[in-house]
Amino acid sequence: MASSGNPVALLFGRNLAAARKRLGFSQEDVGIRASLHRTEIGLLERGERVPRIDTAIKLAGSVDASIAELFEGIDWTPGMAQRGSFSFSADAGCRDGQDVR
């Protein structure tokens, strides 16, 4: 498996390959069961492609795995959102000389 690329795609592919091999299925077997071409299974397993949600569901059913199993080890940490605010320099004032603060 390639060492560079999208880490989500790489880990998903590793999980898919492990589930497939656990059942003794070929990529073609999984492709037939998921209504996908065998080359698509190879691209997914190598992490060269990220599946759409409907494809992930098909794949999970095809290898008798849960969606959670195929996404095992893939986590998301949400970013922190901040509300916008105005800032003023220390010497800000109006043209008429009055302080705006």
How many beta strands in the DSSP annotation? 0
The CATH topology name of the domain at 7-70 reads 434 Repressor (Amino-terminal Domain)
* Poorly predicted runs of 5 or more residues: none
Going by CATH, the homologous superfamily of the domain at 7-70 would be lambda repressor-like DNA-binding domains
Instruction: Label the structural class.
Output: mainly alpha
Helix proportion: 40-55%
Mean pLDDT: 88
- Mind telling me the CATH class of the domain at 7-70? Mainly Alpha
CATH architecture of the domain at 7-70: Orthogonal Bundle
Report, as a whole number of angstroms, the end-to-end distance: 61 Å
SSE order, as H and E?
HHHHH
State the oligomer.
single chain
Report the biggest beta sheet as strand number plus sense, adding barrel if it closes. Answer: none
How many distinct helices? Answer: 5
Range of strand content:
under 5%
The coarse silhouette is elongated
Please state the CA-atom Rg, rounded to the nearest Å. 25 Å
Short account of what is shown:
With 101 residues, the protein is mainly alpha-helical. The chain is built from five helices and no strands.
